[in-house]
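Reference record
================
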Amino acid sequence: MISVSEARAALLDLVSAVDVETVPLAQAAGRVLARPVTAGRDQPPFDASAMDGYAVNAAEVELHAMFKVIGEAAAGHGFQGRVGAGQAVRIFTGAPVPEGASFVVIQEDVDRKGDLITITDDPGDNANIRDRGRDFRVGQTVDAPRILRPADIALLAAMNIAEVPVRRRPVVALMSTGDELVMPGETPGPDQIIVSNTFGLKAMLEEHGAEVRMLPIARDTDASLRTAFGLAHDADLIVTIGGASVGDHDLVAGVAESLGMERAFYKVAMRPGKPLMAGRFGTGAMVGLPGNPVSAMICGRVFVVPMLSAMLGLPTAAENLMSAPLAAPLPANGPRQHYMRAMWKDAGLQAFDSQDSSLLSVLAQAEALIVRPPHDPARDVGERVNYLAI
């Protein structure tokens, strides 16, 4: 068996960044920006009023000063003339500040009678003007790589960027294996169960940027597995679930190797998830996850998600674990790194009593995974432990 860190490094060596494609800005949310992009304009593109009021020359602003209103400026409809001495332009938020004006007196500080206004309240020192380029200037860049959040999309739109260079979504083929499995909605036989791993992993991997293909369930026969692998031949990553152990009905490794898979490792010193297999497969990679539902999901989070980050050109430094105090004691850990399902209680983490790798109900309630290194001693309430958010 190899350690979790050794397995992670070996898996990252199996993949490389996928190609770059250009997509319309409206389709870029959640995608990974592949190259820096540059603003094509200033924002705001002109000195703009920050308030509704009257644009005047700042040198003339004082309590009880009077001005003649000579026009109006609204958003999208600027005043084309010049503001001279003793003159004002009615202005609204977002409108261009007219030439000659350098201060906006807010409307609450003004009394207006016809075309004359008088400053009736202290106007203060704030000019209420957003200077041209205050937000960003022509040539300013948004750096890559980065996952484009809604705020990033708004920024790119304001920069007048209509198309965005992003990494294409890595194609992941998910293949559940086993005669015991049927799809949700079907009626299982007396010895069968409903397949769940594929659906959970699909949701997880799509959340992290993958295009996921769910393959038909592969039965425990050489022919069925070969057919399933044939359907996945053009995927960047093939993820099999179950069938990777060494039992008489665990055929995945043998079939994969007969089809050209070059195994990188088998078995990792972790709980849950020891029977993990990986290797090169054609132009892509393959990961064989354990069949137990919790094992498959945790291995997906610990190993497959970082592989996706590498394919998307994102940083793949060692997992940045957080720490928190324990809300309940923990016994000493064994020789494998243990990912314990836990929940928050009294500002600390408490591991669930049962850590059986078949209990999806416990995983669904879990808010974090406490990460116990091999041979970690017993821990008492209040001691800090590392954890992975889920």
Notes: The two ends are 26 Å apart (CA to CA). The chain has seven helices and 28 strands.
